[in-house]
Amino acid sequence: MTKIIGLTGGIGSGKSTVANYIASKGIPVYIADEEAKKIMEQPNIIQRIQDLFSESVLTIDSKLNRKKIAELVFNAPDKLQQLNAIVHPEVKAHFQNWLNEHKNFPFVIKEVAILFETGGNKDCDKIILITAPEEVRIERAMKRDNASRESILSRIKNQLPESDKIKLSDFVIENIILQKTILKTDEILKILAKP
């Protein structure tokens, strides 16, 4: 039975860096956010999402205007919940198919930004949490997303506090110095590879 290893961490923690490193080792890595974006490009999903909103959330070329959707759901938890109710089951089904394609591996990595917030941790055999001091995360996210400090802070506030995530995780990697992060990741991969 292939084990599912959840990989998560707050905004700017460096999840993608670790996920890419693990993938470079030949271990299958499922990036849930990327897959969700692809799923949200399917015409039937676009239509279901548009039906949620009273105003148009489409661009001129009939694609979803993600920025507008983000603004609309930001202060409307019920709308966010309805949006997630469309997208999450589709991602879950997609992941199951992907998992079947990789069932010959002892374990796979499922990278999910909001793993605990969506209850996805319950489907994982083990969880790796990537952390970094909040100030480092803010700086990284501002640079990466070309975003304001306020918008990054509000996204951090919408995620489960780091201290709670640490308690719920099996492994914690503090990602400040890349070499140390890679060494720690290698240690964890060795442990996971044991039958």
Topology, please?
Layout: E1 3-9, H1 15-24, E2 29-31, H2 32-39, H3 43-50, H4 66-74, H5 77-101, E3 107-111, E4 126-131, H6 134-145, H7 149-157, H8 162-168, E5 171-174, H9 178-193
Parallel strand pairs: 1-3, 1-4, 2-3, 4-5
Helix pairs in contact: 2-5
Keyword list:
alpha/beta; Rossmann fold; 2 domains; 9 helices; 5 strands; globular
CATH architecture of the largest domain: 3-Layer(aba) Sandwich
Name of the level-1 CATH class of the largest domain: Alpha Beta
The count of helical stretches stands at 9
Arithmetic mean of pLDDT:
93
The unreliable regions are: none
> Cα-atom Rg, whole angstroms?
17 Å
Helical amount: 40-55%
Which fold name fills CATH's third level, the topology of the largest domain? Rossmann fold
CATH superfamily of the largest domain: P-loop containing nucleotide triphosphate hydrolases
Shape: globular
Largest sheet: 5 strands, parallel
Number of DSSP strand runs: 5
Distance separating the two termini: 11 Å
Strand content: 5-15%
Summarize the helix and strand pattern as letters: EHEHHHHEEHHHEH
Describe the protein in words.
With 195 residues, the protein is α/β, with parallel strands linked by helices. It has a 5-stranded parallel beta sheet with strand order 2-3-1-4-5, sandwiched between helices. α2 packs across α5. 23% of the residues are buried.
